Amino acid sequence: MKKSIFTALVCLALSVAIFAGCTPAEPQTIDSQYKVTLPQSADFSVSADKTSAKAQEQVTLTVTMTNTDKYLTAVKYNGNTCNGENGVYTFTMPSEDVSVTVETADYVTVTEDGDFATLDEGNLYTVAQNATHNGENILQKQWGFDVWFDSNYMSILNSEIISSDTEVIGADALSVKSYSKRDLGMSGDNDFEIVKAKVIIDTEKIGTGTTWLTMTFENDNLSPKPSSTFCVKVTVVPYGQLQVETNDATVSIDVSSAGSDGDTFTLRICDRDHIDGSTVSSAFTDYTLTVENGKITVTFKYVTGHGYWLRVTKGNADDYLTTLLISAKETATAVFTGDVKYASTGTLIITQPNTTVDLVLAD
Predict the structure, then answer these.
(1) What whole-number distance in Å separates Cα of residue 357 and Cα of residue 251?
(2) What is the DSSP letter of 110?
(3) What's the confidence (pLDDT) of residue 28?
(4) What CA–CA distance (Å, rounded) separates 191 from 182?
(5) Are residues 90 and 124 in the same domain?
(6) What does the pLDDT look like over 109-136, one tens digit per residue?
(7) pLDDT at position 31, please?
(8) Which residue from 148, 199, 238, 293 lies 20 to 30 Å from 206 (Cα-Cα)?
(9) What does the H/E/C string look like for 70-82?
């Protein structure tokens, strides 16, 4: 009798233990909330409209790039790609916690891409607001980048310009102008062929900062279509703040053939390559100088690499009608190409700073 009671008690205890082990402690229900974990980075910021959600709820993410030299390639949740574009992305909450990941890549400067197109080496990718430089119309606030083409029979040019930061340069500030051989006065066969384009930025419609321009060009007359894609970093600065490197140079001109000591002459020095909107505010400066020992002398600041026109007039004001011509001269530190008859068209190019260029009036 005692044995039977003991056996029954053991069986009852085992049954209770088995039942307890099979019962879930916290059963999940349709109302369960799952966490959304966002990444942190110096390259971007991420926000979500909710930090937890029920299964099947939509979660909206906002991604903002803070590193202008990188671009967004993908936004994922638990390894799955989110839907969306232009910084706004969504996903449907699964029945589990979610970790959001953001994938980026570096912008890379591309100035050469095959034989079809070539970016002009003289393009200036620091742009000043409300400035005019190498544009289509010198009377408008335009900044131009030149592109050259080497492709047969191109009369239709396809182009696409994409700005990484539309707050700096938006689509409404960008346009492309194409030029045929005929437009450029080039003679020969097939003068209808497009050989050049100018990417034009309306500098009245841009903001300060940096942006990357991805520029694609394609010949629509051939199959397959030759194409080139370039990528350049463009920096926009306020007018007057485009930095240029300057150095000192001294110009001394022997004017004894046209005047005596004590006489007054005016020397105009004009920057042939002046950049509007730069820290050098004016393209030219007039210097009123007095003859000493048969010469007029001035020290001026020049922009490294730029060429300068010189114009000498007797008297205290510049007067192109009475210009005195200057002879050509070349030294180890500077070159002056010399004026031609009836025109002061000579160009001074300085190759070494803090130099003195000794010139003389032409006979």
Answers:
(1) 5
(2) B
(3) 54
(4) 5
(5) no
(6) 999 988 899 999 999 999 999 999 999 8
(7) 76
(8) 148
(9) EEEEEEEECCEEC
